[in-house]
Amino acid sequence: MAEGQSNRNSRLAWWAERLGVLLVLPTLAVLFAGGVYAIADAVLAPTPAAQRPGFIDTVLASRAVVAAIRLAIIFGAVFIVVSVVALIARGQWLIRVGPVQVSEQVSDIDAENQRLRASLDNAQEIIDDLRQDLIKTGRVVNQATQDPGEPG
Length: 152
Known about the structure:
Blueprint: H1 2-44, H2 55-60, H3 63-89, E1 96-97, E2 100-101, H4 106-145
Antiparallel strand pairs: 1-2
Helix pairs in contact: 1-3
């Protein structure tokens, strides 16, 4: 039973790893293509000039600044994708999202689950022993309370 469960878990982990690769590689390729497009568009496209430029208009008038902002957004997206995949692979996933926080990691919960199952098995053995003792005690009580004149 344990060997079958272990084999199933290893196959599941193998498929999860392959699925992660199948999802991450195309995502990274799309993000890379988006980065190339963002840089090319920022450098090659004409930038409109405002008639009365403000501070932001002045800063964003430079093609290099626009390209840098776009690259920062793309690198941020790549970082998020790679981080999520790495956390999933380590079994940690998200511990905190905004105001919601998970108190324990998944691996801690699995260990606690195994410990509780072992404790339950031990308690079940003790209960079975106590039932057998109760049956024996009931027989002894029945024999002791029978009338001495009655055949036993």
